[in-house]
Amino acid sequence: MMLDTFPAPTLSFGPADEELRTRVRAWLADHDPGEPPDGYDARIEAQIAWQAQLRASGFVGLSWPQRYGGSGLDVTAEAVLAEELAGSGMPELINRIAVYMVGPTLMDLASDAQREQFLPGMLDASELWCQGFSEPDAGSDLAAVRTRGRIADDEVVISGQKVWTSRAHIARWCACLVRTEPGSVKHHGLSMAIVDMRSPGVSTTPLPQILNEPHFNEVFLDDVRVPLDRLVGGPGAGWKVAMSMLSYERGLFVLERQIRLRRRFEQLADLVIERGLDGDAGIRARMGDVHAQLEILAAQVYRTLAAKRAGTLRNGATSVDKLLMSHVYQDLFALAVDVLGPEVALGTNGWTHDLLESRSTGIYGGTTEIQLNIVARQLLGLGVSS
Amino acid sequence: MTTAATDRSETTELVRSLDASLTAILPLTALLEAVEHDRPLGAGVQEALLRLGWAGMGVDESLGGLGLDAEARTALAAVAGRRLLPAAMRSESVLLAPALAALAAGGSAEAEGWLDGLLEGRVRGGGVVVAAPAGGSQADEILVPLAPGAELVAVLAADRAVVVPLAEVASVEAFDALDRGQGYARVALGEALGRADRTVAGPPARAMLAQWRLAVLGEAHGAGQRALELSTEFAGQREQFGKAIVSFQAVAHRLAAMAVELEACDAGIGRLAAGFEREAATEDLGRVLLHRVPAGMRTVCESAIQVHGGMGFTWELGLHLHYRRVLSLQYEAGGHGPTAAAIGAAYLANRKAAHV
Per 3-state DSSP, what percentage of chain A is helix, strand, and coil (rounded to 5)? Predict the structure, then answer.
């Protein structure tokens, strides 16, 4: 009952975090990679090099245990890094799926051998990861996964198709949700296989987004042979592993994203002032609304991180972060395009780019409707059909 | 104000105990009668409420108060919102009592006497926060909820709070308020604001404003919490088309959206309360929340009525009581009412000033 927990505790930083912040700032001042290079492939290369540099300086895996190559620090240290990277407009970690989602899930649920093999390459981005969850007929209904994993002796032979798989074309490994129990339905009989994307039988085809960028792909799996000991948590644990991974998707990611949104909002405010639009009552109201949303989102993210740190994070709570983030993301860029005039609204530029991109935020990682289902079922405890 | 941090489990115990007490003291029938006839709750109810020691919520222990920290006071304010504690008791505890305590600490025997009376329930009053008009002078007419037999009113504007005996004001007229039964009155202050010996300025006044904000936000949130609880319970029981209406996604999503708004506002208030304790700069967040929380809780209450359908629109169900309270708080939260436009204007002005 909310009565017992209101008002929610928030995250606070200690002297060690502030000392880390000073170090990160000093490092960033000396290592600014400058404007990203032209071209998608060159940008990816630059981002890989950037993460490797950060890793070499000890700034990636701050909250990972030392035995897995991390620094063994509190989650607040990760928050400091995310704040400083985003706040200074530096590139994000290209392998964040691995560092923030797959890695922590492997630490929770994988075997020692799996951890030893897969965790080291995540931090320096020498081995990129992708997430093979969605399929043509399994979008919001993730449990409708059809990709088969036939267990034969000490192997799993995988056949099927994944779709909307971000960066599959450059990933070395894929956390791939497959149905290993013939005849099973819904979330039963699924396993999480770690697929080597260089294996025979794996092929990827770019699936350009509405921005015509080759960010995500279709992945075809044709009798791909995966050693049986690469099923995380063993056969049948797939749904549990997938849910763990998705729960790790929010938190730091949203923290970093809201700071980047805040920077864009500041840029918009400067343009509004520069163009003498700041006296317009309608524009003030919309700016005020988005500003309020950003403040609320920040508070929500720090509350989530505080709960994670205290071990009191409730099931379904991070759906609130996702819903708030996608809402303000979409409102911010709609506002920008509405107020900045035809030069912006009719053009191909950062604002229209981000407006188009903002539509993805209500879809990826569970659509807005799915998040509302999660809130209804898990936070409110209601019986509602999915 | 200085207070030691209140232990969270202690707060939870206090909250539960207060919630149970108010549930018993403030039955729906009594609340509905007060609103229907626009009269205060009965003397017996008033006495029971006074025995709770509510007026001491915002006062240091050394001065006879409860000595609670900001988070604990905010949690208790939410209980007030859930159970619809009379509005005047909010301002007695977070404006009038702290103002009197500050004056008493400064050596005012008059204030000390009033404070003792207030904490013992012999002296009643009210209080209001007004936006300082351009030019800096105080507003001379206020709308304020007054407790039965009120003798004093605290008026807080910007960084200055004044305690005014109602016997010295120009006029007091009853006001037919939306949230009836709360003793709302239109008070013309006349020359009564001029007494320096009854004025609190500087840090204590700013602390009162911060505390007032948390109380208003907590109370609005509490009203929203209760509206959601009633709605989820109802939606689980009410059957249409042969099944509980909660099983329809349209209804479940409406309830989920209410929960999201409550969660988001909870996070904001928690951060503001934590900032209060650390004396962090929370001016901007406070301004944002004064807009967002009452507006959000208004939406929550409106959704609650919608989920209840025709029953939600009835007098006897009482959902309108929380709605009335939140609508009033939406105004009271900022005197002249913080709006998205005001937040946007302040943000743009700060941004402009930073560039200059």
Answer: 50, 15, 35
